[in-house]
Amino acid sequence: EVIVPAVRARVPQARFVVASKDPITNPAAGRLRGVELLPSTDLRLLFHDCAVGAAPLHAGFEVRGSVLEAMAAGIPVVTTERVREHLGATADFELRVGDTAAGFARHIVELLVSSSDREAVGASGRRFVRANFSWEVFGARLDTLLTGAAKGPSTATEGSGPRPIPAAFGG
After folding, report:
1. Which stretches of the chain are assigned E, i.e. beta strand?
2. Contact 118, 111 (CB under 8 A)
3. Strand partners, 79
4. Are 37 and 24 in contact (CB under 8 A)?
5. Per DSSP, what are the bridge partners of residue 20?
6. Three-state SS letters, 58-84
7. Are 137 and 116 in contact (CB under 8 A)?
8. SS3 125
């Protein structure tokens, strides 16, 4: 209720789409002028239209669909410090962090008005996902674990690899 008007004050033509695989239960979202509610099981359908992804996530979040898929598509993401820390991403490089409504809105506006910032953060986020969460990275990590398990328990956990993302409920 605060972020949308703050962004619209600086970027009046901004279009907001709230998409979720879970039912959207916040009635305030539907009352905001120009906010579209889109139940979706495949958020990739939105990525060709998105300039900036916003994921103001806190407890009970689902990082894969909300943040990593957007970053993998080269969409710059604004999220919370908790999510940034969870992913191990670098703030202001691979994504933007805003833990207050004002900070969140400021980052969204900055990315909307600066195509160079939008492209740089989007490209850095995409490289980050490829380097840390791609199938190739997980495949190599699995290969290392299986090879280590075959050799003995002392080598099964050695080596670097992607950071695991703990399972979480919610969307």
Report:
1. 16-20, 35-39, 53-55, 77-79, 96-97
2. yes
3. 55, 97
4. yes
5. 39
6. CCCCCHHHHHHHHHHCCCCEEECHHHH
7. no
8. helix
Find the farthest-apart pair of alpha carbons in the chain and give their distance in angstroms, rounded. Answer: 61
Q: How many CB atoms are located within 10 Å of the residue 114 CB?
A: 12
In tens, the pLDDT along 48-74 reads 666 898 887 754 456 666 788 889 989
Q: Which residues contact 14 (CB under 8 A, 6 or more apart)?
A: 7, 8, 34, 108, 112
- Residue 98 pLDDT exceeds 80: yes
| Nearest-angstrom CA–CA distance, 106 and 103 | 5
Question: In terms of C-beta density within 10 A (0-12 exposed, 13-18 middle, 19 or more buried), how is residue 161 classed?
Answer: middle
CA-nearest of 65, 64, 44, 67 to 55 is 67
How many angstroms separate the CA atoms of 125 and 73, rounded? 9
**Predicted TM-score (pTM) of this structure:** 0.73
- What gap in Å lies between CA 126 and CA 73, rounded to an integer? 6
Please give the single-letter amino acid code of residue 80: T
61 by Cβ neighbours in 10 Å (0-12 / 13-18 / 19+) ranks as buried
Please provide the distance, in angstroms rounded to a whole number, between the alpha carbons at the two ends of the chain. 19
